[in-house]
Design brief:
alpha+beta, 3-stranded antiparallel β-sheet, globular, 3 strands, about 140 residues
Length: about 140
């Protein structure tokens, strides 16, 4: 039956790519980040691959972010991948000719060990998620 034109896993993947494009345009847009991670969280359901969430560090992070966004808090009792989310500010130039903000995801110690780094900027993480799912769709 679908949801309007979203009827297949490929459609949901394309929506996720569209959400990523919006994040690339504005890496501080929490609305686009919310849309991206909620969409990415449900792709395993559409592909009948729910077990991948617990087995794959990247998908555990996605699940923690999506469920945290949905409930407005990162619940450490159910999910243990994300320590916090924040906005990073970057200024360049003597008189701050260039100023930017980006959303940042701070990982828990255990999950950081899986990635070899303690945090991700939201666009970098979203790109990794799209790259992870691309072979399942094509």
């Amino acid at each position: 039956m679908g949801f309007f034109e979203l009827a297949t896993p490929k459609d949901l993947f394309q929506k996720m790519e569209s959400d990523l494009a919006a994040l690339r345009k504005d890496p501080s847009d929490s609305y686009s980040a919310f849309n991206f991670f909620i969409t990415a969280e449900h792709l395993p359901d559409w592909l009948s691959l729910k077990d991948l969430r617990k087995q794959t560090p990247l998908l555990r992070v996605v699940s923690h972010l999506a469920n945290g966004a949905k409930h407005f808090q990162l619940d450490p009792r159910r999910h243990t991948s994300v320590d916090s989310t924040s906005t990073s500010t970057y200024a360049e130039g003597y008189a701050s000719d260039y100023f930017a903000e980006e959303l940042v995801i701070q990982l828990t110690t255990n999950e950081a060990a899986n990635f070899g780094k303690p945090w991700f900027e939201v666009v970098e993480l979203a790109e990794k998620v799209v790259d992870f799912w691309r072979p399942f769709i094509t």
